[in-house]
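Morning F.,

Quick status update on the modeling queue. The single chain you submitted on Monday has been processed. Sequence for confirmation:
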Amino acid sequence: MKAYLELEEIDRLAATADNLRDMLLVTMLFHLGCRVSEALGIAVGDIDLDAGTVTIKHLKSRVKLKCPKCGTSLGLTSVFCPKCGDKVEAAVKELKEHRKQRILPLDDDLIALLKEFISRGGPINRNGKRLLFGINRHRAWQIIKTLGEKAGLPRIINNESGKVHYVSPHKLRDAFAIRAMRHNDSGDGLRMLQEHLGHQSFNTTAKYRKVAGEEHRRWYDDLWKGDGHSIKA
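C-alpha cells below.
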C-alpha cells in the first residue's frame, strides 16, 4: 500500500480534469504544498504575476507571542511585558502580522495556468473579493477524490494511523513535502520547508524526512533479497 503519490500519478490526476478550474486546483495544491483551506482563500489580489508570488493567509489562529527581551509569554493584546516591563506593543503587532501570512513563489507552469484561468474569467466575486475558486472545502475534497478515482489512482495509507484514505487535497500537500525532502533533506532544507508549509512546529515538518527515508530502507533491503546470499553465525 502506498504512503504518498508519485509525480507521474499527480500528472495523471491533473490530466483527468475536464475543466481548467479543477486542473488549477490540483496543480496549485501540489506545486505550492498549501492547505486546501489556504488555497480556497486565495483571491486574485493575493497574486503578483509579475513578481511570481502569492500571499497565503494563515487560517490557523494559534499565535505564540513572546517578549523580544526576556522571552516571557505575552497575550494578544499585551502592551508591556509582565516580567521585564518593556513596551512590547510594536513587537507584538509585527509578530502577529508576520504569522498571519506567508509569501510563496510561483513556478512558470503555475503562472501560465493562473494567467489563462484569470483571463478566461474563472475567478468568482464573493464578499468583495475575486476568489480563485469560489468553492467550499467539501467540494474541493470531492473534486480531488473523484479525479483520483477516474485516474485509477490507488488509495493512500497513513503510516502513523494505518488508515487507508482516498486521494485528497492533503495528500497533494504531502506529495509536495516528500518531493522537497528528496531534493534536500539537510537542516537548511527542513527549515525552508517548515517556512514554506507554514508549520509552527519543526517536528511536524521533520516527519516528512522519515517518510522519504523509508525509500532508502526498502532500497537497502532489496539488495539482499532473491539471490540466495546469507550469512549465518
